[in-house]
Protein 1
Amino acid sequence: SWSISEDRVVYQLLVLLQPPPRHSFRLEQLCGTHLPERSSGVRVVLECTCPRATGAAPCLAHPAQSEDTAQPSPLLQTLCTGSYLDVEETACWVQNLVQTAWEHLPQWQRWQLTVLPSSCSCRLLLSGPSELQLCAVLLFAVEQGSP
């Protein structure tokens, strides 16, 4: 969606997060609240990919007895707290990614990118040569039962 207020155009973009390969997201209601979409945890679950019926080698979710337990990916270590997706860490990671990418866009050098404080979304303010400012708000979401 978008709106205009005084000298600022605000765009709100919904960003659907996808789990990494061999993982899934599970929404879990926290503290018995009645608003699961606002008060839920997003658990990141490592899915079994081994064909147990055929007796093939174990997958990452079921390491062999002699092997060490599979380590989570560096991205999951960055974005998760324990087994749960950390919204603040995700927002910070996206903000840093956007700032780094912005430096490589010479066609926008007349515009200044400012990351606005936000702990659960990514809020970006673009100020250009005119009085008009553009504000983009990236809202993060996951689909229930997303593989």
Note: Confidence is low (pLDDT under 50) at residues 34-39.
Protein 2
Amino acid sequence: KLGGYGIIRVLPICPPPNTTLIYPFMMLALWGIIMTSLIGLRQPDLKALIAYSSVGHMGLVISATLIQTHWGLSGAMLLMIAHGLTSSALFCLANMNYERTHSRALLLLQGAQIIFPLMAAWWIIASLTNMALPPTINFMGELLILTTLMNWCPLTIIITAIGTTLTAAYTLYMFLSTQHGKLPHGLSLPPMMTREHLLLALHMIPLILITMKPNLLF
């Protein structure tokens, strides 16, 4: 997100989007969406999977920012703020699992829904926002970015469509791997504490409020 802010700050000295100088950076940003999503699909480490998810979403932000239109900058700003809260919530959930199992491997985290039904509710809310499900603010940001990219070059819809599909795939893979399946034996898991629910609520309440009134960010 700091990198996205830096790109917005240096836009006055960037080449216009209709020059050939911008094409290599656009290709790297769009290809990065596909690559990080594919790596996320094969990632056994929960924390690394969430980190690759952040990198993939920032590829959308960079490509929209380089086009230098009002819609592109608005979508990039929405997605940076929304994914900053969503990604942080996912990292908090991953750390809560790590504190209980002392492992980030998805194989040791499965079946948590049986013991922690409230944590499973937080997991599904964070996962749905990460997938940019309507009418979340993530969806609004991605919709503005996809529209901007398609107006700039219609062929980009192929890459962004593949990236969006892969994002949904590895997010579902992450959720199903941690919440469903057979619970490993020999684990002594303490229950969730009030401070953990408060921490996650402080991530999700701003997302819901921004979704209800997104023009505050415009």
Note: The chain has one domain: 1-8+30-217.
Protein 3
Amino acid sequence: LFSDEKYFDLDGIYNRQNGRIWAVDRDEADANGGIKQKQKFQAKVMVWLGACSKGITPVVIFENGTMNQQRYIDKVLPVAKKYGDKQFGDDWIYQQDGAKPYTDKLSMEWCYDNIPAIIDKQRWPPNSPELNPLDYSVWTEFVQQINWNVVRSKQTLIEELKRSVKKIRTETVLKSWKSWTNRLHRLKRINGNYFH
């Protein structure tokens, strides 16, 4: 079960670390969506989601503030555990990145006490959008399902996120899983560099 979180705001979703465009020059990048206009001081929410070969977890939305260790333990980990147990019984592995709330001592203790197996930060590349299906597939699908014309406030954004996550196409999630092993082998061949 892979997990990730993103900020959504009234302009959509954008993450400088994962939002990459391959282009010959700046003009080509801009033509392919390289320019992102952002409103100043707008409301945003953090969204956590998990994905696996069986589908996606329920969405967890943090309306205010950011993720910290206690919110992660109280709100996210129980959702991941319930979903993983329902889909796979006691035969599943949880992947999380190296963000501080996830690698905190109490968070890791909770995981080791409650989840069958975990890929910790020592065994996972720190910048791995090429390996996390959420980064290379599911977030894009999620954003495409959102009707941005109805998003006018923080509340309408939250309502639209809850509605749109249910519209993520199963075939998109399954396709990303079918390509995961091949992506892993390709990354190994190129020593963990980004795909070109």
Note: The chain has a mean pLDDT of 83.
